[in-house]
Amino acid sequence: MITMTMLYGSAGLMFAGFAVLSALDRGNPRRLANAAFWGLMALSLLAGDRLGDFGNGLLVLALAGIGGFNLLGKGRPASTSDEAREGWSIRLGNRLFLPALIIPLVALVGTLVTAYTPVGGWGLFEPKRETYAFLVLGVLLALVTLYLWLRPPALAPLQEGRRLVDSIGWALVLPQMLAALGAVFAAAGIGTIVGDGARAIIPEGNVFIACAIYAFGMAAFTMVMGNAFAAFPVLAAGIGVPLLIQQYGGSPAVVGAVGMLAGFCGTLMTPMAANFNLVPAALLDLKDQYGVIRAQVATALPLLLVNLLLIYFLAFAR
Amino acid sequence: MNAWPLLGIALVVAGFALRLNPMLVVTAAALVTGLLAGLDLHAVIATFGKAFNDNRIIAVVWLVLPVIGLLERYGLQQRAATLVRRMQGATTGRILALYLVYRQATAAVGLMSTAGQAQTVRPLVAPMALAAAEQDYGPLDPAVADLIKSMAAATDNVGLFFGEDIFIAIGSIVLIQQTLSADGYVLAPFELAVWAVPSAIAALLIHGGRMLWFDRRLRKVCR
To answer: Tell me: the pLDDT tens digits for B136-195?
Structure first.
């Protein structure tokens, strides 16, 4: 069976490779910081379960220290020049797109086959995690294809991958940090405090204001937590179920489904949703780390209003 | 009720507003919130570490980077740009609007992980959108290029968020189902998924319209 431990292990080996190559990279004056940072990621992925909770906590603090005080530099792995790439692109033509399609295709076919054929019953994969297993299989298949077809230097995938992780930098770890922050927030009872507070300010008997506070609250709390999944249970338990569904007789399906989507509008407007909003800014070398959020606000605000109106008109339609 | 942990939220908001390094903001917020809630330092660090370890699945997705990097080495971005230059009538806005439709449609049938910021936006969509603008207006000002790249990233997010909830086997649908069933409202995934359709259409009209309008804005900025 392909277990999660094996998937973490493959990612861990990749980061270990980045760490070693970073340490040897004399073109990067901060090579030791990069080596330590990617080395800690490798340690977490390879041995996180054996470090203990406190040990993992110290590991996170070390990552935060290296990333937070901007100690990371940019490696200079050997790659091809723009002219050489233009040449390859002309020589290889549109066939170049095919290896890029291997990963999604393997993930798709694999997920469908496990879901709809007896293969799913063979117990090859950890339940609900098949897509990740196929993603990794797709990556391996794409790498084999590229090795056979283009015969790159043996270390090229690791060097090119290192070029990309160094351009993302600490933002690569931030999504995981934010998920961990959410857990601390939950342990501190933030959800209960916010739910009680929201109920206290809603005037009695006004359905539209209750809908508005539910929808805007969902977006606002999502912006704070960086994730609609963290906001939904709080706002549903605080306002959605007791007020909109039980007191005013709203449809549970609409209140639930559209309420979550109101939260998604919040996701578009917050740096806390780092993997969607900050990582791409790093990945695309944007000058403004909030550039993606700026581009999204004009879509998110009208869409939030639409979702509020959908809840008001659809949930209470007779 | 102890409301002091809310200071942790205030710290996060202030930290991001002041553009401090997010790694420091998040770490400080976690420590402060935990301590204000009455946990001791050892327990806060352990809670933080355990949750980080529980969320390692996020890191597995980065395994695609060596493949993307290797393809870039052999000119994938240049190829994507060439493809656009050969298309008749391809503009930045039209390419992004088309990508929005593609992303929403594929996410709606469960193919969330077939595209994404690392998988498609950086190697394909952003170079295509840039190439279309360069085709029309010549070399771009760096600020305009950044704007186009931001729009490409935004389009991927909007398409994903407002497509995936139509697919019944997604985490958010499961979460809605579980939360409501705790209060005695038992709903089938399909009942929830249909109510994601109106918002999906609204997202398509609003963001798609913005992208087509974006062509006019580019014309003004670049001339």
So the answer is: 999 999 999 999 999 999 999 999 999 988 876 566 787 788 788 878 888 877 788 889
Task: State whether B70 and B178 are in the same domain.
Answer: yes
Same domain, B140 and B200: yes
Cβ-Cβ pairs closer than 8 A, A with B, add up to 421
Tell me, yes or no, if A310 comes closer than 8 A to chain B by beta carbon.
yes
- ipTM, two decimals, is 0.86
Given a contact cutoff of 8 angstroms between Cβ atoms, the answer to whether B165 and A260 are in contact is yes
CB contact, 8 Å: B75 with chain A? yes
Does one domain contain both B112 and B35? no
Amino acid identity at A160: E
Same domain, B47 and B87: no
Alpha carbons within 13 A on the beta-carbon side of B81: 18
Count of structural domains, chain B: 2
Contact A57 B46 (CB under 8 A): yes
| pLDDT digit string, tens, across residues A229-253 | 878 888 888 889 888 999 999 999 9
Of B66, B122, B172, which is closest to A260 when you measure between CB atoms?
B172
**Alpha-carbon gap, residue A105 to A135, rounded angstroms:** 9
- Token pair for B163: 């497509």
Q: What is the CA radius of gyration of chain A?
A: 24
Q: Which residues of A fall within a CB distance of 8 Å from B157?
A: 267-268, 276-277, 280, 292, 296
Domain match, B95 and B130 both:
yes
Question: Does residue B50 belong to the interface with chain A, where contact is any CB pair within 8 Å?
Answer: yes
Residue of A267, A272, A274 whose CA lies nearest to A296: A267
In a domain, B1, yes or no: no
* A129: closest CA of chain B, how far (Å): 10
Q: Which domain holds residue B200?
A: 63-222
